[in-house]
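Fold this sequence, please.
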Amino acid sequence: MQSSVFHALSTNFLGNSPNWYKKTIIAFLVINPILLYTIGPFATGWVLIGEFIFTLAMALKCYPLQPGGLLAIEAVLLGMADAYAVLHEVEVNLEVILLLVFMVAGIHFMRDLLLYTFTKILLGVRSKVLLSFMFSIVAAVLSAFLDALTVTAVLISVAVGFYSVYHRVASGKQFELDHDHNDDGGVHTYHREDLDQFRAFLRSLIMHGAVGTALGGVCTLVGEPQNLLIAQVAGWEFMEFVHRMAPVSFPAVSAGLLTCILLEVFGVFGYGAKLPENVRSVLSEFNAEQEKKRKPTDWAALIVQAVVAVILVLSLAFHVAAVGLIGLMIIVLLTAFNGVVEEHQIGHAFEEALPFTALLVVFFAVVAVIHEQHLFLPVIDTVLAMDVDLQPVMFFMANGLLSVISDNVFVATVYIGEVASALDAGTITREQFNHLAIAINTGTNLPSVATPNGQAAFLFLLTSALAPLIRLSYVKMVLMALPYTVVLTATGVVAILVAY
């Protein structure tokens, strides 16, 4: 009886994850208290970061919420960070949490318009190079004035829509029939090669778009959360922020867009896959059938979605409220005017974002450990002790390296606070402060594309429902982001050396 219960507990632990993965997580949980009392909290904190990154890297083996959550709970129990420190990190990032809860759900109710619009683009633009460039530059422009997570949610919704249409046909079903696009069991043999190529095609488009959000995000005060934080400390208005970042941000954006084109032309690092003709035919047929059977109520719904999309863009561009509250407004408008009034219909829209929201709070617990154990302080002290002329480029590189490991908002918060303190103490001049603030902003935005850890939009993509469909793993994301990482980091370093 006891052995059968023990076997059942071991089977239930982390569900269908591989046994080696389960044993690894158990080993982490056992070794952490030992490390804490032997090598101390500072070193153990860095080990915890490595363990958490491992859970993200293995996201396709097990959703990181459970193993990462166990590590975070243990860290709090061991006193590496207390519950109030975690709550403080959540409070600081409340706007991001509200954004995930409401804005992503709002985008869900706009999916018909998005699928309609992007189907026209996909079928109308046959050049993969041009299509990739469009995805990248549109994502960059939108992220400069909206929010990277919102733009990423749009890209995910569109890609899932395309994938589900073809997967349904590849499984021998009609467009209007219900279908589980997570199950490849029904895919006909002669469709499998096209399906694999279609996955590669979508992977490349999504990665171009995701990097595009980082390109646009570095340029403006509202592009990323840390931009606004840095601008508030520095006392910069919107146009002053754009002007001060321009010597670094504009070359980086240009280099990033050029990289997008070259990756597609040469077809390296997982890029270059074209849309299979069979898939194009299916999407064209789907588009024609949708056009044919669209009723007045369907057209009315599209019109409402288009009007609400304009309201969304204007609301975000003029910052009439917190992004999450704007998302709630979008939900109310779209459901009220399109007849979605039953609780279960509305509840379905929240399924995508809430698991990631929970994961993000777990991530904030790890950030609390970083903060409480001062894990980044040696790096900050080392850079501030360097020659004044070297400080901007070293701040850029240090911020970039730490943003790859941790959350770029947290890294920016720590660094800009230390630099502001140095300015108040008279250690640095106002001109030095301006140069360092620019280095901090660009450093937390550009090199952080290297891993999903650095940018919330990348982490959202990795843990979304789309990632397993198109076989986008942590390692695959890192590999596909590598050329962008090298180019953007090198461009940032050169631009800072030349400008400052």
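The CA atoms of residues 14 and 22 lie 7 Å apart. Residues 94-224+240-349 form one domain.
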